Amino acid sequence: MRKYAFLIIISLLVAVNMAYAEECASSDMRQMTLYNPAHLEAIFGTAPLCENGLVHIKTTIGEGRGAREWDIGYLYGNIETREGSKRMLVNEGSFMSASGNRAMINVTGGQFAINAENKGNLLFDVSKAAYFKNYYFFVRKDEECNMLASLTPVATYLNITGEGIAIFNLLYSRYKAGEELEDKYLNRVSNLYGIDLSNATYLEMQALTKGRSGFGDIEVSSDEKIKLRRYYHVQLNPEGGQTGYMDIVFANNAQIFGNEGQNLGISVRDETKPASLKLSMGNEDIIEIAKGALMAFKDNSIYEACAVGQAENLKLNSGVCAFFDKTSGLIRLKPWRTKITTTIETLEGETISERTRGKPIYLTLTYPAVSAYNNLYLKEFEANDIDSRVVVEKQGIAGSMAFSRDDVVMEGGANWYDFGTSFKSLIYDAGNKFYSLFECVLSERQCYFDGTLVSGEFRRMRGQIERCNSNADCGEGRECMQKLCVRQASCQRLTNVNAGGEPANSVDIVFVSDRYMKESDFLRDVGYAVNGDGTHIGILTVDPFSLQKEKFNIWAIYTGETMLPMDSSMRSELTPAERYINSMGMNCPSGDRIITLSGLDFGVFANFGGNAYVSRAREGEWFTAATVHEFGHSFGQLRDEYNQSKAGETSACYAGPPNCVVASAAIGTYGWTPENAAEAVSNNWRGCGGECGRLYNSYLRPSFNSIMRYPEETGGDVFNTPSKAWIQRILDRY
Question: What are the tens digits of pLDDT across the range 55-101?
């Protein structure tokens, strides 16, 4: 998208003498400039040239051997001048800098004035005209707005007194015609001084503010020069075609006033100097950055894209991703180390820009004495980031709470609940290279580590606290499983589910509960998952499992956990933590496969040869069929037979044998018969592997539909022939 800039200011009143005016006309007479050559030569010291309807002006600056010519640019219109004066009034005309000029300024419109008292610093006072720069027009909003631009051979500056508007260039003509434009095409600017326009792009400006001054949807207060930018970015899903804008402030010492209805970024401009960059959300002074950058998003889905790093163009030199939701009192933060571009000047005067990666961030989250926010969710720091810090403070409370990659520390004697916020923080265990969830719940005044009750108070929390060597290391109601304290739970063998194998040589399926308030509800759903509910299939109702029930044993662990510890799954959703589930499963030592039935809303999935995770909340009455599908992955090691083509491969792409193959591998292999392969080709049963790139559209599946494709649709209640053959190979081992 291209944009230009436009301004209007109050003109200078000059006495005009049009005697000896000459015409400079284009060859087709469509463009004509009226001017007094003698007056312009007296002003600039060089005779102007008429070039096809435009008056080309140059001047000499400096003296002696240091004198040099400055090609200023072109004038057009009715140029009024007065003998002996260094001022000009241009009516119905324009000024354009010369194309080779480092400093560019462009003015056009009804009337503007030029003051050339200092030839090396021309002043443009624009009241009934326009100033445009790159991708925006700047427009005076009211009669109290004054905009004064200055032009030198090396720089262009603009001062704004009062309030104006910056308009996306393609829409300026509509605005000028009186049409009311949407806010997203406008940026409000007010009381900015020393705006550097030499290299302005996408409304990027460097300026000073006087008091609290506006830019875009945000306001800024700063005693130093700041850089302001409106940054165009693509949101989340390229296939969805969503677009948006981010307003960005770069400074070392400034206060940014924003709200939840916008995307904004703030970044410490020079991390080598002491900095204090503050963000106020609404009427709450929330965040202070000493080092680093922060991106605050109005949409949680955009925050998620930033937090998981899926969309590089959402990053503002990395930094902290943030989402504020005052309705639920939630602040979500994801710390990324900040990438800083440093500028170095060599002894020869050459300027070199170098990008230094991995600068730490230092951020303080300050809660007012009475705050609308009372819930903080801090996602994991980068695994190699041992320096960054997020500190929580509250007005009127001594001390602070400091979060780092592998620790949460209370400083200054306060308790965590004194800060009036619950929190969740992912803490890294460097020795074992994984994250654990540390959570403190304000309403309970209790803290949990991977679901283990720690206490209501703490001074220091490290990943190692979850470790145990024996049950004696765990609190009451907990036991040590795989060196992790988990809730004590009984393992019961279910004898009423039509399975009856011997544990020593049977398939032992262990069901683990998550977010079930009643054990009876959990055991009911286990029965449905195994035997179906009369309408939907269960594991032991489909061939080949249904014909060999004697090879199965079903076990159940009711954890009593209303909220198991969570981590991010392959789909970047929060799901029950696999390590905790594995440890809990040790209560059933003979278990071969674990299936977690959860009340948490997430996309069901399974690890090949490992655990399956089924969301009762998302699947509803179809959770039994979803359980069979995922058991096909975890026990049968079958592939998905659906295909959701993406722009590229994703982490959920599982094309491959035995039931998702290329045509050359289908015949006589993995249980495919020649007839089955020919049928797949002739019926065009192509496209399988899950969430894959377009390459996998050509892979063959053995049937139009089956359990491993869409179990909720016609034909989705059976395994197809190659899938059954492959499962039977595995069952033959028992």
Answer: 999 999 888 888 899 999 999 999 999 999 999 999 999 999 888 88
Radius of gyration, alpha carbons of the chain: 35
Are the beta carbons of 581 and 566 closer than 8 angstroms?
no
Q: Please indicate, yes or no, whether the overall pTM of this predicted structure exceeds 0.90.
A: no
Chain-centroid distance of CA 473 in Å reads: 41
Amino acid at 722: P
Contacts of 631 (CB under 8 A, 6+ apart): 509, 539, 593, 595, 606, 612
For 266-289, b/e burial (b = at least 16 CB within 10 A) is bbbbebeeebebbbbbeebbbbbb
What does the pLDDT look like over 114-126, one tens digit per residue?
A: 999 999 899 998 7
| Backbone angles phi and psi of 641, in degrees to 5 | -105, 5
Query: pLDDT grade, residue 6 (50/70/90)?
Result: very low
Neighbours of 684 (CB within 10 A): 9
| Alpha-carbon distances, residue 416 vs 323, 366, 412, 493, 635 (angstroms) | 22, 14, 11, 43, 45
pLDDT digits (tens, 9 = 90+) for 19-61: 568 999 998 888 899 999 999 999 999 999 999 999 999 999 8
Q: Burial-class residue 730 by CB neighbours within 10 Å (0-12, 13-18, 19+).
A: middle
Rounded Cα–Cα distance for residues 165 and 186 (Å):
6
Across the chain, which distance is largest between two alpha carbons, in Å? Answer: 114
Burial class (CB in 10 A: 0-12, 13-18, 19+), 681: middle
Q: Tokens 């290279």 appear where?
A: 433
Q: For residue 125, give both structure tokens.
A: 């006072």
Q: Are 241 and 174 in contact (CB under 8 A)?
A: no
Chain centre to alpha carbon of residue 595: 33
Block residue for tokens 């390229």 = 238
DSSP sequence for 105-143: -EEEEEEEEEE-SSTTSEEEEESSEEEEETTEEEEE-ST
Cα 518 to Cα 511, 521, 558, 559, 622, distances in angstroms: 15, 5, 9, 10, 21
Q: Are 484 and 491 in contact (CB under 8 A)?
A: no
Residue 419 DSSP label: G
Question: Cα dihedral sign for 485, 491, 497, 498?
Answer: positive
